[in-house]
Design a protein that fits this description.
Layout lengths: L2 E5 L12 H14 L4 E4 L12 H21 L6 E5 L10 H8 L3 E4 L13 H13 L2 E4 L2 H9 L6 E4 L19 E4 L6 H12 L9 E4 L5 H8 L6 E5 L3 H9 L3 E3 L9 H8 L4 E2 L21 H13 L2 H18 L2 H19 L1
Parallel strand pairs: 1-2, 1-3, 3-4, 4-5, 5-6, 7-8, 7-10, 8-9, 10-11
Helix pairs in contact: 1-12, 2-3, 6-7, 6-10
Keywords: Transferase
Protein name: Glycosyl transferase family 1
Organism: Ruegeria marisrubri
C-alpha cells in the first residue's frame, strides 16, 4: 500500500477551530486515501505569522528546524510521498522540502500560492521560504484560474501545474431541494472579508420588495456585528447559529436559493454544498468564486447592492427558473466537483513520480 505523509503548515486538519482550510485539508486527505493509499498526518506544527513579526518568524523557524530533524530521523522508511497543503507567504512549508531531500521522497503541494510582491516587507523571509518550497515541488495542484497566474509565471523547471477542481468529500449528491422556502446564507462570522460579505447583504436587502425572508447559518466572533447589521429587518432575518453537517444539509434542502457575495473567497465550499443540494446561487462575479459556480451571469462586485438585488428578485419571482437553475447546478457539481474526480486527478499526476522512484 502506498504511504503518504501529509502536512498543513497553516492549520492542522485536527484543529478544533472550524474553518474552510481545516475542512479542505480533511477533504484532500480523504480524496488521496480514496485511491487506496494510507494518508498520515506527520506533523501538527503550525507555521503561521499573521502580523509579519520578525521574532515570531524566527521562533517558528527554530521550531520547524527541530521538527524537520525529528522527522528525518523518525519517519518510517516505507513512506512513498510527501504532500503539503496551502503553502504561502504567511504559512510557508519549512519542513517538507528538508525532509524530502534527506529521505529521497517526492514532494508535491496542494493549493499553494506565490507572492513575489511579498518578497520585500515584513514577510520577506517567509515569502522567500514559501517560494523556495514551491520550487521544490515536482507537482503543484491549483484550484482556481486566479491561482494559476503566478504559479505559471514563476514555474520552476519542468514542474507540473495541475488543475484540481474544488470538491465535496462524497461520491453521492444529497437530496435535492424543491427551491421553496426562505433565502439562505451560510458563512463564518469574523472580521474582514466574511464581515464584508454580510455588510453587502445588509446593503442589498433594502432593495428587495414584497415578503422576503432570509435565514443565516453560521457563528463566530463577529456575530454581534452581523446581528447589528440585520437588526433593522426584524423577523425577516432568522439566525440559525452554527450547524452540524446534518442540520446544514436540512437548511439547504429547505431553502429557495443560496445568497453569498463571496468577498475574497478562495472559492467557497458553501457554493459547492448549496449547488449539490440543487439550489441556484446568487453571488458576485469574483475570482475564485466563478471557478465553482454553474456558468452563467453573476453581477460584478462594482455594480453594487442594486445589481445583487436584481439577481435575487429574478429568482424570487420565478419558481420554475429557480428549479431549472438548481437542477443544472446539481448536475454541474456531480460532473466536476465530487471526490472521485479529485482522486483521479491527483493520482494521474502523482503516479508517475512513484513509478520513477521504484
Amino acid at each position: 500500500m502506498t504511504r503518504v505523509a501529509f502536512y498543513a503548515p497553516m492549520k492542522s486538519p485536527n484543529s478544533p477551530v472550524p474553518s474552510g482550510d481545516r475542512e479542505m485539508a480533511r477533504n484532500l486527505m480523504a480524496a488521496i486515501g480514496a485511491g487506496g493509499a494510507r494518508v498520515e498526518l506527520v506533523s501538527e506544527l503550525r507555521i503561521y505569522d499573521k502580523a509579519g513579526d520578525a521574532e515570531t518568524q524566527a521562533a517558528l523557524r527554530n521550531a520547524a528546524s527541530a521538527e524537520a530533524q525529528r522527522l528525518v530521523e523518525e519517519l518510517p522508511p516505507d513512506f512513498d510521498l510527501w504532500v503539503t497543503y496551502h503553502n504561502y507567504y504567511k504559512a510557508p512549508d519549512l519542513i517538507g522540502p528538508e525532509v524530502c531531500r534527506a529521505r529521497g521522497l517526492p514532494y508535491v503541494q496542494l493549493e499553494s500560492t506565490r507572492a513575489t510582491s511579498r518578497l520585500t516587507g515584513p514577510w520577506a523571509g517567509f515569502a522567500q521560504s514559501a517560494h523556495d518550497a514551491c520550487d521544490a515541488a515536482r507537482v503543484i495542484f491549483y484550484h482556481t484560474a486566479n491561482d494559476l497566474i503566478t504559479l505559471e509565471r514563476e514555474r520552476f523547471g519542468d514542474q507540473a501545474l495541475v488543475h484540481l477542481s474544488p470538491f465535496l468529500p462524497t461520491s453521492e449528491l444529497p437530496p435535492a431541494s424543491d427551491c421553496e422556502g426562505p433565502m439562505l446564507t451560510a458563512g463564518m462570522m469574523r472580521e474582514g472579508d466574511k464581515l464584508r460579505s454580510y455588510q453587502i447583504i445588509a446593503e442589498t436587502l433594502p432593495h428587495l420588495t414584497g415578503d422576503w425572508r432570509l435565514e443565516i447559518a453560521g457563528d463566530g466572533p463577529a456575530r454581534q456585528k452581523v446581528e447589528a447589521l440585520m437588526a433593522r429587518f426584524g423577523g425577516r432575518v432568522r439566525f440559525l447559529g452554527q450547524l452540524d453537517r446534518e442540520a446544514l444539509q436540512a437548511a439547504y434542502a429547505g431553502a429557495s436559493f443560496f445568497l453569498w457575495p463571496g468577498v475574497n473567497e478562495a472559492f467557497g465550499m458553501v457554493y459547492l454544498e448549496a449547488q449539490a443540494a440543487g439550489l441556484p446561487v446568487v453571488a458576485q462575479d469574483r475570482p475564485g468564486v466563478r471557478d465553482v459556480l454553474l456558468p452563467g451571469h453573476y453581477p460584478a462586485a462594482e455594480e453594487g447592492p442594486a445589481a445583487l438585488a436584481r439577481a435575487i428578485e429574478l429568482l424570487r419571482n420565478d419558481a420554475d427558473l429557480r428549479r431549472a437553475r438548481g437542477a443544472k447546478a446539481r448536475a454541474y457539481i456531480a460532473g466536476r466537483h465530487l471526490i472521485a474526480s479529485a482522486t483521479r486527478t491527483f493520482w494521474d499526476a502523482v503516479g508517475p513520480l512513484l513509478e520513477v522512484r521504484t
